[in-house]
Amino acid sequence: DQQVKQNSPSLSVQEGRISILNCDYTNSMFDYFLWYKKYPAEGPTFLISISSIKDKNEDGRFTVFLNKSAKHLSLHIVPSQPGDSAVYFCASTTSGTYKYIFGTGTRLKVLA
Amino acid sequence: GAGVSQSPSNKVTEKGKDVELRCDPISGHTALYWYRQSLGQGLEFLIYFQGNSAPDKSGLPSDRFSAERTGGSVSTLTIQRTQQEDSAVYLCASSLGVGGGSTDTQYFGPGTRLTVL
User: Fold this and answer.
1) Mean pLDDT calculated for residue range B100-109
2) Could you give the 3-state DSSP secondary structure of residue B102?
3) Predicted local confidence at residue A62, as pLDDT
4) From CA B5, how far away is CA B18, in angstroms rounded?
C-alpha cells in the first residue's frame, strides 16, 4: 500500500515556464510534507516543506501548495531553469515521529 | 560544515558475499536513518537510530540485513549473503533528532550504489 504517490514519473518544461510537480497521500495522520531534489550520483537535498496548518509555503522560485481535503500537494517552480533538472521526491510524515514516507519521484527536465 | 558522508560510493560484489556500508552523520546529529532506493522505486526506510535508544529495525527486509551505530556517531549497514535483489542505492541520512516532524529535517549522504552480480 503506497501511502505517498507521485503519479508522473517524468515531466519536461521549457526554460522560463512553470513546472508543477504533484504528490498525493492517503494517510490522514500526515501533517508535515517535504520536497527533496536529487541529482544523479548525489543524495536527496531538502528543498522546501509545509505544515498542515498552512496551505502554501514559498521560498524564492519554489512554492508548495497543500490541499488537505484532497490529500494533495504540489510543488511549483517559477521560472524553471535548466539547473532545476533533477528527480523530485515528496515525503510525508507525522509531527513527533521520525519516519518519512517517500513517493517514487518525478524526473524533471527543463529544456533550454 | 561537513555533510553526511558515505563509503564506498560504489560497491560491486558477488552473490553470497557479505558487504559493509558506512555512514558518517553530520556532527551533532543524534538521529541516523538508512534507506534503500531500488531502480524505479522511492526511498524505502530500513532502520532508524536515535541516541542511545533501541533502533527501529522495522524496515529491514530480511535477517541478512543488520546495522550498528557505534558511539552515537558512525553507522555500518551490513548485508550478509548478498542476493541480486539487494542491488540498490543505499542512502544514509541524519537529523538533529529533536522530536521529529517540522523541527527535524533529514539530510542525506550521497549514497552507496551496491551491485550484486
Assistant:
1) 74
2) helix
3) 98
4) 21
pLDDT digits (tens, 9 = 90+) for A31-80: 999 999 999 888 999 999 999 999 999 999 999 999 999 999 999 999 99
Asked if A103 and A72 touch (Cβ cutoff 8 Å), the reply is no
Pairwise CA distance, residues B112 & B10, whole Å: 5
Between A32, A42, A89, which is nearest B101 by CB? A32
Within a 10 A sphere around the Cβ of A56, how many other Cβ atoms?
Answer: 10
pLDDT of residue A1: 66
In chain A, residues with a C-beta closer than 8 Å to the C-beta of B60 are: none
| Closest residue by Cα to residue A47 from A15, A10, A77 | A77
Tens digits of residue pLDDT in B85-99: 999 999 999 998 765
Contacts of B23 (CB under 8 A, 6+ apart): B4, B5, B6, B32, B34, B74, B75, B76, B77, B92, B94, B109
6-25 in A: which are within 8 Å (CB) of B? Answer: 6
Distance of CA B26 to CAs B62, B83, B97, B103, B106, Å?
A: 28, 31, 12, 16, 10
